[in-house]
Amino acid sequence: MPRISEESIERVAAASDIIEVIGSYFPLKRAGTSWRALCPFHREKSPSFHVSPQKQAYYCFGCGAGGGVFKFVMEYERVDFGTAVQRLAQKAGVTIVEEKGGPDDDRRRALRDRLLDMHRAASDWFHHNLVRSQGGAAAREYLKSRAIGSDIAKDWQLGYAPEGGSALLAHLRKAGFRDNELRASGLFGGGEDGPLRDRFRQRLMFPICNDYGEVIAFSGRVLPPNEDPAKYVNSPETPLFIKGRALFGLHKARRPLADTGTAIVCEGQLDLIRVFESGMENVVAPQGTAFTPAQARLLKRYVETVILCFDSDRAGRTAVERSLPILLAAGFSVRVAALPPGEDPESLIRTGGADAFRALIERAPDYFDFALGEAGRDLEDAGKKSALVRKLAGFAASLPDAVGRESVAARIGPRLAISPQAFLASVPKTPPAAAIEDDNENGPVQPANEEPDAVVRLLLHAVLFDLETRRWLAAQEQDAPSVLSGRPGTELLRTCLRAGFDPADAAATQTFVAAQSPAAQSVLAALLLGRPPANPLAIARESLRNLRKRDLEARREAVTAKLRNPALGPEEIAGLQAEVVDITKDIGQISGSH
Ligand SMILES: [Zn+2]
Q: What is the Cα–Cα distance from 33 to 53, expressed in whole angstroms?
């Protein structure tokens, strides 16, 4: 994603009122000059989540969550910074300028926009066919047999692609899309320059959405009585859609995932929809059989635990075993819900009810326990047992740390009737290739952030509220940077001193705060939400003076200690004594400069 210009960020900050933004997610109650609510980031009974319109910041006195409007959207919606800015820009009607936008970038962006429009149009058209067209009868019938009513179909924008092969083409051409755009969309076959032909024919259509809920691709399922061996046809990669990066259902499941900390993972779209609609909304589907490292990373933003809920046939088992190394390497705790043979989540809920499925999910054992349970009596056969040990040890190799491997060994060794050490000895030194990162798209590494100590906090507070204090302290830092060096939080203070924002300008302050690490944003928000310092410049002078004095006193102490050494010669003693006098004079000067 290209960088958004600082100026745009500032404009978005200026146009977004934090009370309005947070108030659009949940109600805020006025309390004096600030607004309050129950904190959305931790469980509580009385509201400790405060939002200040003056400082355009929020802070929770219960859990320490805090920051500006950008951080709020990032944390609440679980999106990255760029996305939060875009979303707020959309809300506020601000146009964003992206940096380094050469003509190529402009062209790419323009094409992307056209493709998004086209997918929207196609999705509407497919849905219309499902609901209205005669040809859609088979699809309606099929959905009815799966107990999916028209409200659910509408909610998920399910559709029907008619037979033939040129109806969508004609519809989109009429809507004004040009052939080069149609070719780039993945909705048509026809190669580089052959005649275009609808890719999806006579299929039940599932739109695949990005984080925002915009349609970026489709998956089409074959309908009975058609016996096409390709049960699903998916969009190929396009400028909108990169395979292995999207998770079906994520745009609806984000909040429930974050709230529960657990993801139910289904194989198919219909399974997912049924599970979601029965009230277990923390569910996603990987689109394809196994997880990719990119999908695992995406999911890791929301949850720590994954419950795989795949068919209990051979293909389902293979999908579990192919996903496992990737999920374990990403640090998830992985559980497996064992569906009864021949059932999928959809059929189980339809026949047994949501409670039957919920019970299955709640009982789902950890993968290693699951595998041992599956093996059952096979463990009595020496050959099968050692094959299982090899298999499990292979998976244990994907665990990111030794502690995890040891705890698995301690737990399952006894059940395999081998010692934990013997199990650990059979763990390969290198994890399977599938679990190794496929790209380095992890974003910038945030520097470790220290909690500022009391003095630095005081100075930060003064600097955040008063321009004059910031200028004064910045000048002091240039003259004598040593006093603050090494104190926890000094780096953040220095960043503040270097920044050019005017504390009276809430939007500029916001932009500055948003550029800091999440931990630093919490620290800054807590200070911004506090009472403004009564006399910031005096406080800063006093703090710095005290620090200097303590610094000098520590130095005098050190020199005096040296003087106690009986092995010193007369010249050394004289030198050290002179030093003590000098330091004492300096201390006197500082104390007298009130
Ligand atoms: Zn909280």
A: 8
Residue 446 in domain: no
Higher pLDDT, 451 or 15: 15
Tell me how far the alpha carbon of residue 65 lies from the centroid of ligand 1, in angstroms: 6
User: Do 588 and 461 belong together in one domain?
Assistant: yes
CA of 435 to the centre of ligand 1 (A): 35
Q: Strand 333-336 to strand 215-222: parallel, antiparallel, or no bridges (unpaired)?
A: unpaired
Question: Does 583 lie in the same domain as 473?
Answer: yes
Report pLDDT for 479: 66
Question: How many domains are there within the chain?
Answer: 5
Task: Determine the residue type at 232.
Answer: Y
Q: Which amino acid is located at 91 in the chain?
A: K
Look at 205 and 415; give whichever has higher pLDDT. Answer: 205
Q: Give residue 491 CA to ligand 1 midpoint distance, Å.
A: 26
Do residues 82 and 120 share a domain?
no
Q: Cα separation of 357 and 335, whole Å?
A: 15
In this structure, the answer to whether residues 331 and 276 fall within a common structural domain is: yes
Expressed in angstroms and rounded, the spacing between residue 40 Cα and the centre of ligand 1 is: 7
Alpha-carbon gap, residue 523 to 488, rounded angstroms: 12
Q: Please give the model's pTM, rounded to 2 decimal places.
A: 0.62
How far is C-alpha 153 from the chain's CA centre? Answer: 28
Q: How far is the CA of 253 from the centre of ligand 1 (A)?
A: 22
Most confident of 41-45, 310-314, 350-354, 584-588: 350-354
Domain boundary among 27, 60, 92: 92
**Does some domain include residue 99?**
no
Contact indicator for 296, 367 with CB cutoff of 8 Å = no
How many angstroms is it from 261 CA to the middle of ligand 1?
A: 16
Domain that holds residue 419: 370-435
End-to-end CA distance of the chain: 53
